Amino acid sequence: GAVVSQHPSWVICKSGTSVKIECRSLDFQATTMFWYRQFPKQSLMLMATSNEGSKATYEQGVEKDKFLINHASLTLSTLTVTSAHPEDSSFYICSARRIGDNNEQFFGPGTRLTVL
Amino acid sequence: GENVEQHPSTLSVQEGDSAVIKCTYSDSASNYFPWYKQELGKGPQLIIDIRSNVGEKKDQRIAVTLNKTAKHFSLHITETQPEDSAVYFCAASSYAGNMLTFGGGTRLMVKP
């Protein structure tokens, strides 16, 4: 149990285009989902916290107009990278917290974004 | 906010030896300390966690110890195997904050 999927697993796009990444909790409901970014050989950096039915909370330095997050249901959150640029190329990872759980997060497999 | 430091950044051991990775945290309100294993190109996988009401937890070859007074916790892997080679991350969070703060990661290499 507690499986989180991401789609796509990798994507290559041209500079200036937008890319949407989906995060789904497959066998549980998640009130809260988290989006992380990981550059090569670095740790995970939290970008934003997404709560179902409300606006996401962004970490300092993360542009909310560039990284649009939607958490429309208890099993789906999406991250849209708008007007992507090469510096947005990274590994994007989501995680989800089960309703009633304290602290524990279940991570997705990640999405590799490459912007040309 | 919380700050988590992790050492060493790289660790090379011989197969069968033990590996120890240490983390320190700054926020005394933190009460949940998970450890993740991340293989190349994959998301982090939870391998063990500990809460602040426990000092030690063990799961087969993996154990975690927590010293709340000193604000540090450690991961111990015994009888290491080549498939243990990966990057390991520690993290900390509190009930109030909910969010995880990650350490910088340790690249573990187990030589056959």
Descriptive key words:
heterodimer, A: mainly beta, seven-stranded mixed β-sheet, 53% strand, B: 112 residues, mainly beta, six-stranded mixed β-sheet, five-stranded antiparallel β-sheet, 11 strands, globular
Descriptive overview:
The complex is a heterodimer of chains A (116) and B (112). With 116 residues, chain A is mainly beta. Helix content of chain A is 0%, strand content 53%. In chain A, strands 2, 4, 5, 6, 9, 10 and 11 form a 7-stranded mixed sheet that branches. Chain A is globular, with a radius of gyration of 13 Å. The mean pLDDT of chain A is 93. Chain B has 112 residues and is mostly beta strands. In chain B, the strands form 2 sheets. In chain B, strands 2, 4, 5, 9, 10 and 11 form a 6-stranded mixed sheet that branches. Chain B has a 5-stranded antiparallel sheet with strand order 1-3-8-7-6, with no helix packed on it. Chain B is globular, with a radius of gyration of 13 Å. Chains A and B meet through strand 5, strand 9 and strand 10 of A and strand 4, strand 5 and strand 10 of B.
